[in-house]
Fold this protein.
Amino acid sequence: MKNVVNVLKKNTQVKDFLINKIETEKVDFGINGKIIGGPYSPIENAINLSGSIKILWKNDEISTVNITSNDFEDPKYLLNRAKLVSYKDEYGKEFVEPYNIRFPVKQFSREVDKIIYKRKDYLVDQLKQTIQIESRVGIKSHEAILSSSKVKIKVYNSKGLTLEQKLTNYSEGIVWNNRFYFILDSRQPLKINEFKNNLKFQGQLYDSTNNIIKIGKFKTKNLKVIISPEETYELFAFFIYANLDGTKIANNMSHFHKKDFIKRVKKFGSWFSLKTDPLKRLTPGGTNFSGEGVRANTVTFIDKGKLITPVLDLKNAKKLSMKPTTASLNTPNIIEYFHKSDKDVKNTSVYISNCEEGIYVPSILGLHTQNFITGDYSLSSPYSLYIKDGNVVGSVKTIIFGNFFDDLNKDVEFVSNGIFPLPGISYSTGITLE
Amino acid sequence: MSINKNIYEKLIKCADQKGVYLVIRCQENKSRFLNCKNKKIDESSLVESKGTGIQAFQKTGHMGFSSVDTVSNEDRLFECLDQAISSSDVAKNNFEPVKEIFNLKPVQDKIVDKLEGNPFKVSQSKLQKDLFKIHNDFISKYPNESISNSVAFNDTNWRVFRSDKTDIRFELIYSFLNIYMHTGRDSEVNQIYENIHGKGYNLLHDEKKVRRLKRRIRFMYNLIKRYSKADRLKGGKYPLLIDSEIAGVFVHEAFGHTAESDNFYSDSPLLKNGQIDKGKKVANSYVNVFDYAGKEDFAYFPYSGYGVKRTKAEIVKNGKVYNLLSDVITAKKTSSDLTGASRMESYSDIPVPRMSSTQIELDNRHTIKLGFNHLITDIKMIQKVLRDKGIFKKYPEIIYLIGSRGGQVDQQKGNFQFGSIASVKLEEDKITYLKPLIFSGVTLEALRSAELAFGKKYTSIGVCGKSGQSVNVSKKAPLILLSPNKFITVS
């Protein structure tokens, strides 16, 4: 990075600059059908360098350019390229003043580092155990991907800010015949066996999807619709997090408007608070600073139904006259949907056993085809499970429909599957049998 | 292309001495992007990247893969080779071998494409001026809406080496200009997304294409403007008229994905016990579905990631399952013809069977010619054609779905859902505007409902994601009438 810094410092046209350098090393592989490490999921090793550079030129134009390893070999060419695409941007000229992080939060595991270089057998064992657990619950066709990576991030700017951190990631994604899916994510190696009891219950639910039943119509008018934790996260990401994106708000392309945040308008039921805490130790999504060098902090986006702040980078924070927020909302592990003191999270099996009539929705199709701004949705769930008097009776095809913003104003309950870090929701919404 | 063949020959020689067979993919990519939102530049970039992916096959067929972001650093490339070989060693004790690769015949080929106007030499001020000319025109026509326009240019060079002396290079060039419009307020908000594509900078000066984009936007805008007063349709089974965009997404999601031969490892409605269910009737005998992209196509990819020439894949021929989108790994396993369909997004990805340009057509006897472009012409013209052909006598109410919001299919059982941007109910002498609809159902059953086609096939382009990789795809379809079907629900 030194050679890039030197070239930037020597260039008389450069006023300020920021370099965000990311070095990644990873190994991943998976299961396809019955095969571990088959032709479409072999052991893959990758080493690459990426990142970005932002330059404020003396003529007041800015350039933001993605960088690759080749750019570090030829920084003069990088500078010429950046100059070619410079443009006027009155809000994009912000740089963070220097500061020190006295007690950085640890996000690095030596064990993951070892797996990448010397312990691929650990991954093989984990995949074998995954197959064993799945076979016990009746899964015949297996699909999973395991990934271990380590990332070294350096942020440097011309004002003297110098930040560095190392992160590791270990994740396992599992799909059961496009009906159920699970994501295990950690900064440290995970042991799939620790999830076997929770997967066993999910296996019982999965087994019920093979028992297709016919029901004329639902008995209750407002029956409970229970959405799996994984799909709940997707619904929140699509309808809520997308609309909290600062770029969209700054350009009038969101459900929410700048004035809603300034006036702290209440848009949701009081139970709904949305917070991220990137300073959680050894937690995916956790970080000490953003790619722009902004110090990480806990952020409350929605408090008891009231809008507090969008997700803001430096540019959009300036444009909206608000503070930058560091953390994004794309990692469930650092998110909280509500104040734990205000709501209970029930175990899915307990919740189902107390449910008079309801539908469990393990997965939905075509979320991206919906209108994320109005919140209107109509979603097909081909493997819904019908619950009657506390028992899962069998599988029905359903379409759930409503308005997600209105739905979150109703009484919502929470269910956990013990696998995903966030709970699923149970609520009343429109539902028809397909 | 700055690739030094000597280095790669050294890698192959080194692997050969260890009894290891290599497939090497090198990529050099250059892309430029500019976005403006509501009269201001919001993003501008110029990226150049290079890299190498090495697949190492032991004699037993056990394989490992490694990638590194260089095409010239010999030390790093040899390190990458070591990683690939060491992974193939681990595979030896555990995984399924892949021997089909050894049966391929060596190929040498070079396919060069040409930029129609070099976007990498154009000054920023000229690029901004040209994009703003189009952007400002949209802003002036729709002053109350939020509008974003982007233009992107891409030039990618691929080179595939194999241990059998195969050396293939091909170049992929494309550009696109898109518009995203956010219309209305609060509960009446809707979005329109449309694009045009070309082969270089000249796209910004292609008046015919830009005019077509403007006309399509005007057509869609006039429809969704009625959104606030539109009726809600009661969910149910209806005869459907789906426009080229939706028909294209339907054929892509429903037949393209289910025809990918890597479904051998999971399941697909087109497979029976892992083999292609050739001859299975899935549509009326006048319906054909195939996948092929010519050099001018946005989704052009002439060779597979393993260096096999890509050929036309006839997925449904005369209403019956005929072939798959297959690659060297699973063509034989699924008893389908090898169509060289594997693609990868970048050098660091493993190739998987993918679509290019997926197309549906009905024979001449079942295609009604139109004297107009149905993507941009007043709906009354379509209503008139339906009336003239006596179609309302059979179906007094037809739901017309216009503009695609995309879709999703469960490849194993064929359950699908697609979304429309606008919808109308057509009757003999009445047009009723509806809130946007989705239609969902089961793919193989749905294709049986394809009854009539109208007009020419029109192309829509996009990006398709699978296995964490995004690749360019296109879809070509006419306007299609689907008869009511208990397996298709509109809601």
In short: Chain A touches chain B through 66 residues (CB under 8 Å). The mean pLDDT of chain A is 92. Chain A has twelve helices and 20 strands.
